Amino acid sequence: GIDRQASRRLINDEFKIPPQSFLVGMAANMRPVKGADLLLTALKLLPAHVHVLLIGEVRDPRLKVIAQNPLIKDRVHFAGYRTDAKVLIGGLDVNCAPSRGREGLTKSILEGMGQGVPSIVSEAGGLPELVDDGVNGIVVRTDDAEKLYDAIIDLSTKGKLLTSIGNEGISILNSRFNLDDTIQETLLLYRKYKMHNLNIADKVNIR
């Protein structure tokens, strides 16, 4: 597995982030639908020790503009496209997906869960299927920077909650999204579907 402490040291060194900072990040192609602007808006209200790391290509030109705000310009870090995105995700304190569009089972959130990184996600698409609110992360209203702020404050001020949510993420990932279980369930579904079609074919032939 990935050494989260080593990942964090790598991030702190590369992006000149103070060691005691609380680091919130997201990994995505930063299009408007991904909601990175909501994270930066929330950051304006968050304490000075909270930093944001954006991992992925910036395809929303507003982000660089918002990041120039004097309140946050030293606390927003653009990593760009990275082949080591999984390692960087492991160094976060919180992994965000504040999407305002249709989402499937977002890989970046699964990557974080597997490393014990707590998640904050919006209600968009399949994101709530990955995160049980208050158990392995926090689910916030879509397109709501204020609720995103509240969730970050909650996790950044409650160390025990942060740890328990991270541990639950690993447990839920191993049980709910276990690869072997998924393969077996898919095979059972296929066999059931195949038998159903055979029964229909038999009835058609009888007629």
Order of strands across the main sheet: 3-2-1-4-5-6
Report the span from N to C terminus. 59 Å
What does the main sheet amount to? Answer: 6 strands, parallel
Low-confidence stretches: none
Q: Beta fraction of the residues?
A: 5-15%
Total number of helical segments? 9
Q: H/E order of the elements?
A: HEHEHEHEHEHEHHH
**Gross geometry:** globular
Structural class: alpha/beta
Got a strand count? 6
Rounded to the nearest angstrom, the radius of gyration is 20 Å
- Helix-residue proportion: 40-55%
Mean pLDDT: 88
Notes on the structure:
Helices cover 49% and strands 14% of the residues. The chain has 207 residues and is of the alpha/beta class. Strand 1 (22-27), helix 2 and strand 2 (50-55) form a beta-alpha-beta unit. The longest helix has 28 residues, at 179-206. The chain is globular.
Structural descriptors:
207 residues; alpha/beta; six-stranded parallel sheet; 49% helix
